[in-house]
Amino acid sequence: GAVVSQHPSRVICKSGTSVKIECRSLDFQATTMFWYRQFPKQSLMLMATSNEGSKATYEQGVEKDKFLINHASLTLSTLTVTSAHPEDSSFYICSALPVAGQGVGKDTEAFFGQGTRLTVV
Amino acid sequence: KNQVEQSPQSLIILEGKNCTLQCNYTVSPFSNLRWYKQDTGRGPVSLTIMTFSENTKSNGRYTATLDADTKQSSLHITASQLSDSASYICVVSPNAGNNRKLIWGLGTSLAVNP
């Protein structure tokens, strides 16, 4: 099956520092990956769409200079939370959309990583 | 306004029992409806995905139904197991192939007790 791996699964950082989260599609290629944020007892909120080889598309209200996204290859997208503050503490989840024709998934469904719990102290 | 509402908000059942979770949506246009299982502290895992023309789909002990006329869906879990304890999320896609515009429900938190 399609596997998406996120790393790290948990991270604690000091306020003002930057944190990088990786999202890898292990057995398929993905030109498009999505980054979500989820607060306790809330639904997933899309932050940005990561496009391989081009700039990410950010949702309204998401600061692109704070949440840097790089999608340098067909299997890796990274999210860097810059100058993190306690209010950035959240559960960050990525999903990857398989390139058509790989025999992975159906109905153009994206596959989710296991999430990263970020705590800023 | 596009919305997905789920009920109940939370549910506690005994191991071995069946349960049904509900999802009502007001999303238009409509492409497909998905049910995900999300364990605490983990990413969502897809259970079923149904298009407009499908009214039922099964995945093991999980059976989803869809009534596109009334804009309702249900997820039925048979012979529940302790490992079924999780949040079950209903997600509606307005446009085929556009994962950016997914409309997410808040989920039903299910606890299966021994």
Write the layout of secondary structure elements.
The complex is a heterodimer of chains A (121) and B (114).
Chain A: E1 4-7, E2 10-13, E3 19-25, E4 32-38, E5 45-51, E6 57-58, E7 67-73, E8 76-81, E9 90-97, E10 111-112, E11 116-120
Parallel strand pairs in A: 2-11
Antiparallel strand pairs in A: 1-3, 3-8, 4-5, 4-9, 5-6, 7-8, 9-10, 9-11
Chain B: E1 4-7, E2 10-14, E3 19-25, E4 32-38, E5 45-51, E6 56-59, E7 62-67, E8 72-77, E9 86-93, E10 103-104, E11 108-113
Parallel strand pairs in B: 2-11
Antiparallel strand pairs in B: 1-3, 3-8, 4-5, 4-9, 6-7, 7-8, 9-10, 9-11
Structural features:
heterodimer; A: 121 residues; mainly beta; seven-stranded mixed beta sheet; four-stranded antiparallel beta sheet; globular; B: 114 residues; six-stranded mixed beta sheet
Descriptive overview:
The complex is a heterodimer of chains A (121) and B (114). In chain A, a hairpin with a 5-residue loop joins strand 5 and strand 6. Chain A starts with a strand and ends with a strand. In chain A, 36% of the residues are buried. In chain A, strands 2, 4, 5, 6, 9, 10 and 11 form a 7-stranded mixed sheet that branches. In chain A, strands 1-3-8-7 form a 4-stranded antiparallel sheet, with no helix packed on it. Chain A is globular and about 45 Å long. By secondary structure, chain A is mostly beta strands. Helices cover 0% and strands 49% of the residues of chain A. Chain B has 114 residues and is an all-beta fold. Chain B is 0% helix and 54% strand. Chain B contains no helices and 11 strands. In chain B, strands 2, 4, 5, 9, 10 and 11 form a 6-stranded mixed sheet that branches. A 5-stranded antiparallel sheet of chain B has the order 1-3-8-7-6, with no helix packed on it. In chain B, a hairpin with a 2-residue loop joins strand 6 and strand 7. Chain B is globular and about 40 Å long. The chains are: A mainly beta (121), B mainly beta (114). The interface between A and B is medium-sized, with 27 and 20 residues.
